[in-house]
Amino acid sequence: MKPPSLLCLSENKMSIKTSDNQIDFLIQLLADRDAFVLEKVREQILSLGEDALPFLEIAARKEDLGIRPQALDLITRLLPKRLGRKFLALSSKGPEELFPLEEGIFLMNQFGFPHLDVDQITEPLDALAEELKPLLKDETDAEGTVRILSRFLFKDKGFRGNKKDYYNPDNSYLNKVLENKKGLPVSLSVLCLLVAARLNLPVYGVGMPTHFILMLESAGEKIYFDPYNGGRILTPDDCARLLKTQGFKFDASYLNKTPPRQILIRMLRNLFMIYKNNGEPDKTAHIEDFVKILNKIPKARDFSALA
Fold first, then answer.
1. pLDDT 10s digits, 232-246
2. pLDDT in tens, 124-146
3. What is the pTM of this model?
4. CA–CA separation, 272 vs 229, rounded Å?
5. Long-range contacts formed by 60-66: CB under 8 A, 24+ apart
């Protein structure tokens, strides 16, 4: 696509024409102190759409304080369209049980942190898995495996539920969970799932209403555990009591495995509620679009409480 020409920016500025190989020059003009020039440059960059994103992402990683904030703001405005397209491609992959949860989590993280590199998520997860691996070497018991996994992540590494600042958006973004070592029930569960997957451990998500937990299933044995509360092992009766305190009547189906796509949707729903409560309608609208894409339905489902 040939971008349109940029008309004369001001009486004292020469006319500038853009082409695909001149976008970088436009971005350099984001440091211009002339408000009129800056406004016209921003309009031109936005008109280029996704073509401008790679150049803006490079600018956002630089330390130029004149350009970097402008680049980040423009990325925030342009990125949702690209993410929506990527969510659409992701939602078309199958079969359902092989839905690429980690890819979806990265796309979600890019919504909150547009300059994020995938290595900022994969490398810490790889490192955790490598450190955990020898601890599990001689363990064959399902409950023993859960105890080692939980002790490693929630005692030795210090990951924990953020009970003091539950509604902080950082609790939902995996890169910030890895950095701050605090999260929500579902984000801490996803941390466990992705570490376990690297070691081929049969760990699955269990999306109970209002509280997400995990299950390790081995040789017909099911061990439920709660990452938000230090990996505490739960019996089905414990789960029923937990749901009762939240006003839910227990149903055995609540302990079924949650498909990876629905885990991602649940994380997005949490963000929807957080941004809605924070009065950020643009962000809630984009997240609702992502949920619609992933659900493959014309209307988004109801957004429930954070879990």
1. 999 999 999 999 998
2. 999 999 999 999 998 889 999 99
3. 0.82
4. 24
5. 60/114, 60/115, 61/115, 64/31, 66/30, 66/31
Token digits for 269? 């729903």
Q: How far apart are alpha carbons 56 and 73 in whole angstroms?
A: 10
CA-CA distance, 289 to 7, in Å (whole number)?
A: 34
Tokens of 292: 């619609």
Please state, as a whole number, how many other Cβ atoms lie within 10 Å of the Cβ of residue 89: 12
The domain over range 93-295 is classified in CATH as 3.10.620: yes
Starting at the edge strand found earlier in the chain, the sheet holding 232-234 runs 203-208, 211-218, 221-226, 232-234
Q: How many CB atoms lie within 10 A of CB 56?
A: 27
- Written as one letter, the residue type at 186 is V
- CA separation, residue 287 to residues 22, 45, 47, 112, 147 (Å): 32, 24, 23, 11, 35
As a whole number of angstroms, the distance between CA 181 and CA 162 comes to 9
d(CA 261, CA 284): 19
Burial annotation 8-38 (CB, 10 A radius, 16+ → b, else e)? ebeeeeeebebeeeebeebbebbebeeeebb
List CB contacts of 306: < 8 A, sequence separation 6 or more: 166, 167, 184, 270, 273, 274
Domain map (residue ranges) of the chain: 20-78, 93-295
In the numeric block, which tokens belong to residue 290?
């992502």
Residue type, 153: L
| DSSP 3-state of 233 | strand
Alpha helices in the chain (DSSP H): 23-28, 35-48, 53-60, 68-91, 101-112, 119-132, 142-151, 174-180, 185-198, 236-245, 260-277, 281-295
Express each pLDDT in 115-128 by its tens digit.
889 999 999 999 99
If you write DSSP's letter for every residue of 46-83 in order, what string do you get?
HHHGGGGHHHHHHHHTS--TTTHHHHHHHHHHHHHHHH
